[in-house]
Specification:
This protein has 425 residues and is an alpha/beta fold. It folds into two domains: 237 residues, no CATH class; 173 residues, no CATH class. It is built from 21 helices and five strands. The protein has a five-stranded mixed β-sheet, with helices on both faces. A hairpin with a 2-residue loop joins β1 and β2.
Length: 425
């Protein structure tokens, strides 16, 4: 029995856990050998139904509708998934193995032997949404930094290093490092999925189950299986199968900017400074629209997308539901429709800035992301200026002194956007 194979007997039921590295040639052989040797009642696999469809039909991603993705608010999730998949694919290329080949082998061998299979993992979309929503602002920033870093890393990994990842010492070190840097992400990606995998595996019928899992899940899954057998926990995974709903504080925060805008304008009229309030409102519009446009320019957006960002910025950045990134991204996708070659090179193109700008799908996502950031920055600056107008006589004096400078800055930024648009970026 190999170090990555565990046999556990609980309440008369035998579980054979195979710990794999998802791009390991040895894991592919081990999975095939164990299933043929054990001939279990079920083969449980660390996949969800959507990933199974992708594994069975590698060309399915060519049917991607980027506009639908943005309308459904899944722009960031798609970016995160692309980066993670691309990183795994690059490592697999180094050792000549496609990610998930051991899972595919498990399915094929089970089908050949007439053994039932079960996909026991949580949907990847749910996992990513939970990882994002459960993080605080600092955690989200660190997660973004980690994703961006992994997208552009050029580090190569050897076949020997891949196999060493299955050793408990190596894996323990990695888990400790992840827990130290991103504890919430480790909880969602590892701990919660250990519980989910073990619970769904435990519910399978039959007296012998072979489970094909990533090596990092073996200790946690084994521990949770023993808790299930002892009656310490149940197999109910409802709580970790849902995306946490924002509390009342989060809902109120969504309405903070539009409510604050109305309050500041009303206060300006009440305090007898209506002209200053209107001027501040125009400056807010200028900062908001200009920086959303600048973000679209930096993303290499089409002039139509730049215009869409500028026009819709006040609506998008204040709306709790919509976003300037959605408007600008959809405009970009309509004008510069993705081509078949963009889809064919999607995972490879995400690894460098040059190819990101050349790939029309990735360009849409970049427009979505940077226009959203630009509009948000403009929103903060503009509202700060409005608050200064109604904040007292000293603030009013300061606003008057900086009024000309504000106008100059906004005009300069706006001119740069128009110039870039006229150049046909």
């Amino acid at each position: 029995m190999s170090q990555t194979e565990k046999h556990i007997v609980l309440n008369g039921k035998e579980f054979i856990l195979i710990g794999t590295a998802h791009i390991s040639p040895e894991s592919i052989n081990e999975v095939s050998e164990v299933i043929k040797r054990e001939t279990p009642d079920y083969v449980a696999i660390e996949l969800d139904e959507d990933r199974l469809k992708t594994l069975r039909d590698p060309e399915s991603w060519k049917k991607l509708d980027i506009i639908k993705v943005l309308k459904e608010g899944r722009g960031f999730l798609m970016m995160a998934n692309l980066v993670l998949s691309s990183f795994q694919r690059r490592m697999g290329n180094d050792v000549g193995v496609k990610p998930g080949e051991e899972m595919k082998t498990a399915i094929n061998v089970a089908e050949e032997l007439g053994i039932k299979t079960a996909m026991i993992d949580r949907p990847i979309t749910t996992t990513l949404k939970r990882a994002w929503s459960k993080n605080n602002l600092w955690g989200k920033c660190k997660l973004l930094a980690a994703l961006i870093s992994s997208a552009f890393t050029k580090e190569e990994i050897s076949a020997k290093e891949i196999e060493e990842l299955k050793n408990s010492n190596e894996m323990d070190n990695m888990m400790e490092e992840l827990a130290g840097y991103l504890p919430t992400v480790k909880e969602v990606l590892i701990d919660e999925r250990n519980e989910y995998l073990a619970s769904h595996m435990y519910e399978l019928e039959g007296s012998k189950i072979v489970a094909v899992l990533g090596a990092g899940h073996l200790p946690g899954v084994e521990e949770h299986l023993k808790k299930l057998a002892a009656g310490e926990v149940t197999t109910d995974t409802t709580q970790i199968s849902q995306v946490p709903k924002g509390g009342i504080g989060g809902k109120l925060l969504n309405w903070l900017f539009p409510v604050l805008m109305v309050v500041l304008i009303a206060m300006g009229f009440i305090k007898g400074v209506p002209h200053e309030s209107i001027a501040a409102l125009l400056r807010w519009f200028g900062w908001n629209a200009a920086l959303a446009g600048v973000g679209t320019v930096l993303a290499g957006g089409h002039p139509f997308a730049i215009l869409a960002a500028i026009v819709t910025a006040p609506i998008g950045t204040l709306s709790p539901v919509l976003g300037v990134g959605m408007f600008a991204g959809i405009a970009q996708a309509y004008v510069c429709k993705p081509r078949v070659e963009d889809m064919e090179t999607l995972y490879d193109d995400v690894t460098s800035l040059k190819t990101i700008y050349k790939n029309r799908i990735l360009r849409v996502l970049l427009v979505f992301f940077l226009s959203q950031i630009g509009g948000a920055i403009g929103n903060f600056i503009g509202l700060a200026k409005m608050a200064a107008v109604v904040g007292g006589s000293a603030a009013e004096t300061a606003v008057e002194a900086s009024s000309t400078l504000d106008t100059t800055i906004v005009e300069t930024i706006t001119d740069s956007v128009v110039d870039a648009a006229s150049d046909g970026l």
